[in-house]
Specification:
Structural class: alpha+beta
Strand content: 5-15%
Helix content: 40-55%
Low-confidence stretches: 412-419
Distance between the termini: 96 Å
CATH class of the largest domain: Alpha Beta
Number of domains: 4
Strand order of the largest sheet: 3-4-5-2-1-8-9
Number of strands: 11
Number of helices: 22
Radius of gyration: 29 Å
Length: 419
């Protein structure tokens, strides 16, 4: 009961009441209900946050619907997989029927069949994720640990359940270095050897699934350590030859937490591709099946890398830096600032922090009132005013009006010379 009490103490009130409702519903239907996977691991480690993933020895969808009615919650059903998700406010419960899996070939999505809890635990990736806490049916609070997961948690060791694990699903290779880096665990010696042996099986997995694993790494807290472990084992190069995670890249990802979480996925891709040629970036984008948004940002990042010598120039005016940076998406500039040389990075940071927000004090109507003809010349005049303000040459509306008069006078003189 110790783990069960710990679970209840960790959960917010609404989540605890929702889980209690699920337990009561499972008892009434005489079906086994279990907390499984990483949630049990995190309870054993006394970690702060616990995700609620539930396995049902029975009809998971029917149980989720019954609980949803009690809680007046929305339930999304996935009959093909025998799963359902319940949502209400901040509460989320995921129900899955106990199942077994088989792989027709390496990298293929598994074929799924209903089964019991022990078979369900046997299909999982690592022993530390192959434990369950009984919530309903039998003795509540009992720890079910058929593969020695608790022992491996105590030893801070990551171990696969069988020798073909990485061949069945090579995304587990990326998960292995992610979990090891996050939890500060070592890879079991046999698991480490199997991982290195099976690196080539990453090619059997779809690009989308590989990319999703990289995106999960991007929002971890210990990304440099994860990449260090991955690079040491050849995982990054095996993912794609254009990717690299050397010292420069690891230093850059150490600052990923400065970015919005929604920007870190593409920022990590930019960093890992920062030493690649444009052709290499294109090939990696194809292999990882990047989204349209990611492709646009990666393309802008490559263009910024080509402009880096200009942004490194001594005495570069803020307006010149803004001209080079302004056509690019913010996410590309953020990633560029993490890998660029000092001067270029400083220019990018200044642009992101303040210069991109600078506008002239005068607007289009103002400059037309001062004599600028309607049409493209208005845009040119406003661009000149913005550049002057960025470079500290104007400090008031009067200064900008005087600059417009100078520009108009210069154009008049030029026209007179042409005449």
């Amino acid at each position: 009961m110790k783990l069960l009490n710990r679970l209840h103490k960790r959960l917010p009130g609404d989540m605890r009441r929702a889980l209690e409702t699920a337990v009561v519903a499972a008892e009434r239907r005489s079906v086994g209900l279990y907390l499984v996977g990483g949630a049990v691991r995190d309870l054993l480690m006394n970690a702060g946050h616990v995700d609620i993933d539930l396995v049902v020895e029975g009809d998971a969808i029917a149980l989720a619907v019954a609980v949803g009615k009690k809680l007046r919650a929305r339930v999304v059903k996935h009959p093909r997989f025998g799963t359902a998700s319940l949502r209400t406010g901040d509460v989320r419960l995921d129900f899955a029927g106990a199942r077994t899996e088989s792989y027709v070939r390496p990298g293929a999505l598994p074929s799924v069949q209903p089964s019991d809890l022990l078979e369900d635990l046997a299909r999982r990736d690592f022993t530390i994720n192959a434990m369950a806490l009984r919530l309903a049916g039998g003795r509540p609070g009992a720890l079910i640990d058929p593969h020695g997961g608790w022992r491996d948690v105590a030893k801070r060791t990551l171990r696969v359940l069988h020798d073909d694990s990485f061949q069945d699903d090579a995304t587990r290779i990326l998960r292995a270095v992610r979990y090891a880096g996050r939890l500060r665990f070592r890879l079991h010696r046999r698991t480490d050897a199997l991982l290195r042996r099976d690196l080539s099986f990453l090619d059997t997995v779809s690009g989308v699934r590989v990319r999703h694993e990289l995106e999960r790494i991007a929002v971890e807290e210990r990304v440099p350590e994860i990449l260090r472990r991955a690079e040491h084992r050849g995982v990054i190069e095996a993912t794609h030859a254009a990717l690299s995670a050397g010292e420069t890249q690891r230093r850059a990802v150490g600052r990923l937490d400065e970015l919005s979480a929604s920007h870190r996925d593409v920022a990590l891709l930019c960093i890992l591709l920062s030493d690649a040629s444009p052709a290499g970036v294109e090939q990696a984008m194809g292999r990882l099946e990047v989204t349209g948004r990611q492709a646009a940002i990666l393309g802008a990042f490559v263009a910024l890398r080509a402009q880096e010598p200009k942004l490194m120039a001594a005495g570069l005016r803020p307006s010149e830096a803004a001209r080079l940076l302004s056509p690019r998406p913010v996410e590309a500039i953020e990633a560029f600032a993490l890998v660029a040389g000092r001067r270029a990075a400083e220019a990018a940071h200044r642009y992101l922090a303040s210069d991109r927000l600078v506008r002239p004090r005068l607007n289009g109507d103002d400059v037309q009132t001062l004599g600028v003809p309607q049409g493209p010349q208005v845009g040119s005049a406003l661009a000149s005013l913005r550049a002057a303000r960025l470079d500290g040459k104007t400090h008031s509306r009067e200064d900008e009006a005087a600059l417009i008069e100078q520009l108009l006078g210069g154009r008049t003189e030029a026209a007179a010379r042409r005449g």
